[in-house]
User: What shape does this take?
Amino acid sequence: MKQEQDQPNVGRDRLASEELGAAERRSVLEAIKRFTIETPSWGYGDSGTRFKVFHWPGAARNLREKLADAALVHRLTGVCPRVAIHIPWDKEDDWEAVKAYAAGLGVRIGAVNPNLFQDEEYRFGSLCHPDPAVRRRAVQHVLECIQIARAVDSDTISLWLADGTNYPGQDDLRARKHRLEETLAEIYAALAPGMRLLIEYKFFEPAFYHTDLADWGMAYTLARKLGPQARVLVDTGHHPQGTNLAHIVAFLLDEEILGGFHFNDRRYADDDLIVGSQHPFELFLVFNELVAAASQPQAPRIDYMIDQSHNIEPKIEAMIQSVLHIQSAYARALLVDRQRLSQAQAAGDVLGAYRVLRDAFETDVRPLLAQAREEMGLDPDPIAAFRRSGYADEVARTRPASRSGASGYPGA
Ligand code: RM4
Ligand code: MN
Ligand code: MN
Assistant: This one.
């Protein structure tokens, strides 16, 4: 097999060398500026683990405050114009007013996330519950979320199902699947034209014997049966250890069924840590697949959302850090030398191909990201700008700790 003779083993930095032409550099910069990320309302409120919710001074206590914090993240990064909401945690009476308030801050509402796991009735599930009355209640709640989405001009319902069982024999697994198909069909039929239903899967928790939507294959099967408005949502923390995320993403992209992401990082389970903080190479490999597929003629719409629950860390800064890590992964993936990669693949040059990816991954993209931000009229260092702004101190002063939790976490 032909080896790379022309490549010193110190690696290639396409940014530092003259290799990346002006036109390619420009197109990478423009892609970085266009790439938007949706942040979650619940990431700005107090949240934690089942052991303890530590209060963060100034953490947002209601939807208005969450939107204000999210708008600040957008002002500092320039790429977070949408905020996902969670019902009932963010429930309000006047959605017109919410829409106007968000618009006044320069953001808008993104995905509407129904809550199918916190009612007493949901002990044995929601859309899969054996009792038709509970299933009806769950369907009604999602239908209400569809109405809310319409009211705030959102076109996305992001559905995560906590349903499952804890013990073998607890319920009939196939009957539960049939109930789910029936309830989802009713929900799907109620979607407004052009509205998307993103179906999120998770292999465990809160149920431990089985989860009704355990993996991407199940989400895929149901999305296909429902129709083109249903898509699969990949939450990066919802797989068993060692699962190859990039492969799942490539497969779903190729099947034109990938609808969006919930980004977060994890070490053991659904840890909801800062995106890219634990496994940055894995995040890069996911973006490598996305960038590779984006060059196809029919590039699909993918919604890039963060789903994090901050426990000990400051909420806003954690969110900005996640956005920066996503941008780094994306920028590096844009720098992959795809021509060299396919040449190495065709030649069976295993390590040559690996090094093409590694070179992009090890490239310092901070100057490029700083340039993109400066071109957008932003501070090149959003974290430093946030720390300088005095916002954290101000909200710590003006937002006394609330006794009732707006985030939905017990004790928050
Ligand atoms: C779940 C799942 C959902 C999120 C809830 C709060 O683990 O990731 O997307 O809405 O947590
Ligand atoms: Mn999620
Ligand atoms: Mn999760």
Observations:
- Residues 113, 160, 200, 235, 262, 270, 307 surround beta-L-rhamnopyranose (ligand 1) (CB under 6 Å).
- The CA atoms of residues 128 and 180 lie 5 Å apart.
